[in-house]
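Two records follow; treat each independently.
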Amino acid sequence: VLGLRAKVPGVSEDLLRSYIRVLPQDSAGVVVAEEGGAIAIDFARVVKLARQLAIEQYVNDRFTPRHARLFRLINEKGHLEREQVTRMAMVATFKETKIMLNQLFRAGLVTVQEIPKAIDRTPSRCHFLWAATPERAVDDLLRTTLTSMANLYSRHALEHSTHGRLLVRSQHVTDEEDYRSNAEKHLAVKVAGGLDKIERAVLQMDGLVLRLRDFDETAK
């Protein structure tokens, strides 16, 4: 919680007051106003937004940015008819919307509910409401990410097992006493670079798991 008594270098009290008034107005809802003129960070909201962004990126990568836009719209609004999705997502035709919704449906990322307008349940006399299933996207993304991490760990271990002696030698050489051949030097640089890429990829995936699973469990 941050109040007006907080001291921020280079920021006057009047400017700080204006910041505190403006921040809770942000549509993201991350900053909330509290009694006494203080503001606080809604960390549960931060976790939700981080997960939502990760899910939308997954849909974007698996399909296209247009699919991600449809998924985000349905996820935010709840249940929508195809005509509403087409209009609100600014898709050119109903046919394009139908194709993208069907692709998301086959992937398990959206569901459709049939609401009959008559007892006979004739398709032409039914409303079809589309809803997002972000939990399925989270499960798929977590499974894919954890599998990729396991593969990277195996690759890392294999590289160390195969080139362990080379890496140890490279760590102990000096400019004055470097008796390695040019081929050995080149291989050492290549192996070290490959290991660095693997480690950075694992760290990135670990951050994704943190947003999708660990943050969510902490918030509970």
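The next record belongs to a different protein.
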Amino acid sequence: MTGRLVSPDMSCSWGNKYIKDDEEAKFPPKYTYLILKSGEKKVAFADPRKFGSVSLCDNLATAEELAPDGLDETNSESNHLEKITSCVSNQRLGIKALLLDQKRVVSGVGNWVADEVLYQCGIHPDQQNLTKEQACKIVKKLNSILSTAVVCLNQYKAYPETWLFSYRWTRKKAGKDCKGRSLTFLQSGGRTSAIVASIQKLRKSQGKEIEKNSKVSRKRKSVSRPDGPQPHFKKEDKSIVTNKRKKATKTLPESRLTKRRNEVSSGMNGNLKLRRSLRLANIGETKQFKIA
């Protein structure tokens, strides 16, 4: 999400929908790449960073490239809610990069919205391997923030003062949130992120703990016996089973067996010959010694 929509009379920016007071303001604004017209009405799409893109389609159903809408598909009645939650949890990609990807989880989430969601959830933007509880919390906060933002824009109101939005526009200078906690800025998901480090801590061990728990659960599943009554063998049945196991043992082919026997016999003969030669040599030495 990037850029903004501007009309000759109104502009949507900085969390407020306002009427322009400056008569000398030019339309279309700088960095405009698209102008939409409907009768006498005009709307311009301006994007200074050139991160945005525009595609034309007959209806939203044909826009298959985009993920489900971040506002409509995150409410409690949506059919995609469980799927979105599962896509957010236990991912190796940082959570902010995941939210900003318009084709992966949800669409319609921009930079400041992602920061606002993570701020209210107390999660670091680079956090990986989120738990299901954290994922559920993010999805619920996302729906709440987008719903509140739409209502505020339609009623010409500013966003709530408790939001991070009201305190983040300090041109990357140190500031404080509504509770007096210090703000810091970092790069996450290719964008500048505003966080409160005291409540948004990066837990690197979280992914390792999840991997350990998954490995332990796998081992338990492999060791655990199947449900239901275990088979009970009588003495006769046990003897049959043991005989089957004996028969199932690997048997070497006859050619390899004969080869091994020959090797063993030749080795034994060689050892005997060596011992005899050593004994004869010792006897000869002693004889020479006695003669001398």
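Discussion point: Residues 254-291 form the longest helix (38 residues). How would you locate this feature using only the token line?
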